[in-house]
Amino acid sequence: MQTVLAKIVADKAIWVEARKQQQPLASFQNEVQPSTRHFYDALQGARTAFILECKKASPSKGVIRDDFDPARIAAIYKHYASAISVLTDEKYFQGSFDFLPIVSQIAPQPILCKDFIIDPYQIYLARYYQADACLLMLSVLDDDQYRQLAAVAHSLEMGVLTEVSNEEELERAIALGAKVVGINNRDLRDLSIDLNRTRELAPKLGHNVTVISESGINTYGQVRELSHFANGFLIGSALMAHDDLNAAVRRVLLGENKVCGLTRGEDAKAAYDAGAIYGGLIFVTTSPRCVSIEEAQEVMAAAPLQYVGVFRNHDIADVVDKAKVLSLAAVQLHGNEDQLYIDTLREALPANVAIWKALSVGETLPARDFQHIDKYVFDNGQGGSGQRFDWSLLNGQSLGNVLLAGGLGADNCVEAAQTGCAGLDFNSAVESQPGIKDARLLASVFQTLRAY
């Protein structure tokens, strides 16, 4: 066993013995009821499954989330997760068994106890605290230990997530009849990440096994690509590190998507309910979707999107004023603003307001060489035209700071997402008329993006 892991497991054995003294099995075993939330069933279905994780800290990153509140996390995860994982290891992950019932009470999904399980006592304890499944790691357990622990879990109607990290452990998992196999992309010797592990190992598992890819998954692009190999994903650190947890989940499951040209509160709500992160407010007077500050405030009051103000060659003082009055998340520049304009704007804007730059794509891809630009929007022409450019220009490009715009709707959003852009910018193709969004078209677009 690798050194880091060996130390953790040795400490876990000490913890188990101490906990047995403090809370003997005999003191609660009669109160342990079988689980009624079925972990195996929850991971089945046409759509990719997501096990979202409540994790305060880890050995590789230290504290990930200072304001760790399992109740608040569960209240968000319950809208997206197939199952919810809860770290219960105290020493290395600052977890607790006390977190399990808190999460279980708020979220209806099966709850996975994520720990270094080496003793049947831990499984009884997990079920007593309302866990519906447990993690068993083949890097920690021999075959006899695994069989004993899996039998205890199944006797309590609990599911088992069987974790493997190499081909030898994978072969053991197959021989042991594991129903759900988690492929850990993290090397437990040096804590490095290699997503190729999922690509290499998953095809060796039969169709009757549910494959979960674990560790190192943090973008929608990775999820879409690896969904060809895995039935689901376990994601923790990538979500826990973000203050806005709701947006972080959407970013991974759907992409960093924006609905632009909002003019009505009901449309902002429809965009948010569908799965958008950003809402675009256009302040360009020649646009049929132009809004006043008062109209923008009405839109913003209706839904907690991150709002982006769209400007074209505006006076810098006007941009700054609107950004401050409306507490915009970002300003998007759609004209021929040069580096001097951007530098001056950056100095005048509050530090927490990002600057986005829209670039018109013709026969070649424009350079992304501006300073102080946080995101780019690639569009065809001046925006709002409903036309797309030649997306093959995006092949082989690094597009982590790019949103794609131009005629995006349910018929082409999957193809657009597969370009590798961080997100999509929807406007005219989700409208019934300019400035009036269609809630059904919005819902359809985001359902299509999630159908993987």
TrEMBL record:
Protein role: Bifunctional enzyme that catalyzes two sequential steps of tryptophan biosynthetic pathway. The first reaction is catalyzed by the isomerase, coded by the TrpF domain; the second reaction is catalyzed by the synthase, coded by the TrpC domain.
Native source organism of the sequence: Escherichia coli
HAMAP family from the UniProt entry: IGPS_B, PRAI
PANTHER family noted in UniProt: INDOLE-3-GLYCEROL-PHOSPHATE SYNTHASE, TRYPTOPHAN BIOSYNTHESIS PROTEIN
Subunit structure: Monomer.
EC numbers for this chain: 4.1.1.48, 5.3.1.24
Entry-linked InterPro entries: Aldolase_TIM, Indole-3-glycerol_P_synth, Indole-3-glycerol_P_synth_dom, Indole-3-GlycerolPSynthase_CS, PRAI_dom, RibuloseP-bd_barrel
Protein name: Multifunctional fusion protein
MF terms (GO), sorted A to Z: indole-3-glycerol-phosphate synthase activity; phosphoribosylanthranilate isomerase activity
